[in-house]
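hey so u asked for the seq, here:
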Amino acid sequence: ESIIREADHLQLEESQKLIQTLSFQRHDFKNQLQVIRMLAQMNKSVEIVNYIQEYNTVMDLSNSIYLHINNAAVSAMLLVFFTEAKEKGVRFSVDCDADFTNFGLSPVAVTRAVGNIISNAIEILESSHTPKGAIQVTIWETSNCFNFIVWNNGPVIPGNQKKIIFKSGFSTKNSSGLGLSIARQIVDELSGQITVESSLEKGTEFKIAFPKSIPSVILTGQPAKIPDIVI
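ran it, structure tokens below
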């Protein structure tokens, strides 16, 4: 019951974050125009060009999330975390090679699972004060799966913690310790797979695979063969 309450609370938080992100972008855009206007009044043409180029770099990623990911829920989730990461000085990049046109899974469930992993990565990078903190989200599909990888260059997860990191209440931070547990629960409910690899050389990588077709046992209660997941 506590996990359900926490899940509802986290879902509400994500909705509030999206609203805040849209408000922030509107406010931020107005601020950028004011800066450019002041530079123009000061006849700082070189500074204007440099400023616009830097701002365009940020906006290019924001726009690419919307333009190259044809699923509103997934793109909105990534935009929320892109904005949050930017505010906290964390580099956030996305590489998507998946077509969500026939996406048959619950967008809410998928974004909650992946979102909890990303949120955890941002918290880890912030709390550990990792220099040049970075997060890379990679999305692609195989014949029977949608795959998500969330990579970060934060502290290594010790081998003995990999087995318990998804347990409810476990946390290396000052938090509820339910985020990763909820992600694991959602992935299991969708008959998916979630794994974690972490090393000093390669960083930390969470891999999630969601089957494109939900086994009939979930829909009808009748046993069904779960397809092999190819990551």
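Confidence is low (pLDDT under 50) at residues 216-231. The domain at 2-220 is CATH 3.30.565.10 (Heat Shock Protein 90).
lmk if thats what u needed
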